[in-house]
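sorry to bug you again but im stuck and you know this stuff better than me. what follows is a protein written twice so to speak, once as letters and once as structure tokens for the fold. id like you to explain what the token line says about the fold, in plain words if possible. anything you notice is useful, everything is just below.
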Amino acid sequence: MIKHYLRLAGSAQLISVQTRGFVSIPWFSKNYQQVTSALKNPDKVAPDGRLKAVVSTSHYTPDKVGFGVHAATIFIYIIFRDLGQQKVGREFGLPYAVEILDSPRNFKNNRRFGVIDQNYWILHQGKGATLPDNVVICIGAWMYPVPRAVIQELLAKIRETFFSRN
């Protein structure tokens, strides 16, 4: 699945060049800076966007599903920024999502969040404002809960191992 993300990032680069924008490694760096800024200034983050999803999952501890979802959401933001984000920031704050984000981190619960996330994107297929939006939404809709659970767990382990604060 990560190969698909990297391919889309390359496609975004081509699309951006065609639309007179420029996407390169500095683009990823700028996206990371925006994530960092959002985490430092959560009150200034728009309530609908992907950055709100990043902010709303930042407090979860390593034993919770939200810990891995936070890392996965940052990863997605760094690659795609706002493309296809729809109102995912609101979705992450809904009671049924929060209940799963706050549940114990295990495969079953990671998969449960993957079901919610995939269903969200299925409902938004074809509703993006641009072609790149719709491509990213389709990727979200096509990615099944099991790979989502595996990626969330992998990123949670990476986050826990390399980025935990001692």
Q: What stands out?
A: Residues 2-162 form one domain. Residues 121 and 140 are 5 Å apart (CA to CA).
